[in-house]
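Worked example 3 (structure in, sequence out).
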């Protein structure tokens, strides 16, 4: 084969790919400072709340008013909104970001009984039709649909892991029952440097079970089993109140079949335990102790949020709680983050509703800087491209 035909075969493919990657990296650096997207969801009144007077008014698609205070958000969903509507408007457009190599975190915040678990779909049950389930099952289903449409060009591996933070300890929800309550199964957080972007720190849970799943059904079975192991307890505000923060991680790894380059991205779904006041949720004994821990970690979360939005504070104490430590990336870092603040419209919850709305409003000011997570193969590819272009320059020099 002549040198010229060799050049014409190589040049367009590699030059195009190199230019595209370089432009993508530059654009990522320049443009990707995004605010956390904040949505508020006002659930309908439940049967035992029917005679109370809802204090909260939804105005337009992004304004709410409660007790004379008006707040603006990116989205506001009223009492008739469905899980499908919330998913399609706020989360669906983030799924392609995962395939571009960006992390995505969805966080449900709100008082006990306000609809966090319902909205996230953490309590998924395979009898519920897929269009009525919460964000997690819908997001997972869309991930596998996208994999199906891209599998001719790329190889994918999807891994799931699931933890809960209960009384400031981390438990693995992905391992079989029995083992779960074992003291030894309390897990620790570790930090490591990102191989691709050295300025980034990756926060992980050491020895956490990671399961490879091949389809929506397998992923949802994992979710169902894990959620069944979550600590719950009855409070006056919610018969099956989640007493822990639950974090499901869906890791999507992809390798381009023609170039061998790889990317990975984390879809992180956080169902927080409810913020509550002990007098309204009527807790005592163990429930009160749990409530104190829950409120403490939510307070640390709000302190981190305040620090991130303050122009004066430069040090952010992410290690002040397990929750903020694990959410480090999602709050101030390398992730597209959506917070869904759930509120209960009944008059007895007016104070909690107001505090949730204030909290969510502050969170809106946080800025994230999402970056593509390239793997080491991609680094090698870049090196290879450099070498190939040096060879091409030598060939062109020879030709002219
Ligand atoms: N948007 C909604 N529409 C109908 N029922 C809802 C809605 N949100 C929550 N619920 C119901 O309200 C109750 C409390 O919701 P849940 O998600 O468990 O609250 P949280 O997780 O915030 O403590 C559950 O019975 C749930 O089915
Ligand atoms: Mg819950």
């Amino acid at each position: 084969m002549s040198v010229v035909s060799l050049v014409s075969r190589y040049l367009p493919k590699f030059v195009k790919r190199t230019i595209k990657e370089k432009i993508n990296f530059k654009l990522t650096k320049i443009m990707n400072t995004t605010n956390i997207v904040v949505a508020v969801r006002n659930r309908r009144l439940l049967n035992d709340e029917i005679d109370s007077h809802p204090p909260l008014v939804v105005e337009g698609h992004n304004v709410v008013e409660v007790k004379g205070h008006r707040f603006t958000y990116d989205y506001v969903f009223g009492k008739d909104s469905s899980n499908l509507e919330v998913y399609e408007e706020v989360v669906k457009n983030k799924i392609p970001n995962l395939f571009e190599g960006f992390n995505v975190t969805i966080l449900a915040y709100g008082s006990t009984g306000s609809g966090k678990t319902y909205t996230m779909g953490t309590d998924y049950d395979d009898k519920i039709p897929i269009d009525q389930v919460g964000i997690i099952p819908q997001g997972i289903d869309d991930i596998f649909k996208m994999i199906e449409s891209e599998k001719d060009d790329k190889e994918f591996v999807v891994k799931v892991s699931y933890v809960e933070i209960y009384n400031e300890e981390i438990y693995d929800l992905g391992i079989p029952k029995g083992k779960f309550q074992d003291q030894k199964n309390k897990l620790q957080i570790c930090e490591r440097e990102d191989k691709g972007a050295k300025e980034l720190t990756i926060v992980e849970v050491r020895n956490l079970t990671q399961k490879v799943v091949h389809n929506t059904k397998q992923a949802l079975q994992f979710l169902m089993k894990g959620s069944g192991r979550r600590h719950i307890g009855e409070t006056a505000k919610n018969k099956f109140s989640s007493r822990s923060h639950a974090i499901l991680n869906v890791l999507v790894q992809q390798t381009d079949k023609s170039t061998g380059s790889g990317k990975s991205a984390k879809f992180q779904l956080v169902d927080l335990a409810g913020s509550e006041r002990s007098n309204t949720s009527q807790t005592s004994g163990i429930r009160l102790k749990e409530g104190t821990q829950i409120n403490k970690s939510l307070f640390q979360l709000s302190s981190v949020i305040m620090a991130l939005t303050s122009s004066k504070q430069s040090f952010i104490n992410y290690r002040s709680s397990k929750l903020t430590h694990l959410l480090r990336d999602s709050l101030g870092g390398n992730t597209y983050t959506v917070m869904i603040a759930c509120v209960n419209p009944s008059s007895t919850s007016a104070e909690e509703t107001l505090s949730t709305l204030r909290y969510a409003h502050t969170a809106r000011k946080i800025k994230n800087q999402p970056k593509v997570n390239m793997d080491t193969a991609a680094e090698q590819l870049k090196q290879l491209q450099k070498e190939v272009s040096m060879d091409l320059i030598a060939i062109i020099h020879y030709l002219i």
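Notes: The chain is about 40% helix and 25% strand. The radius of gyration is 23 Å.
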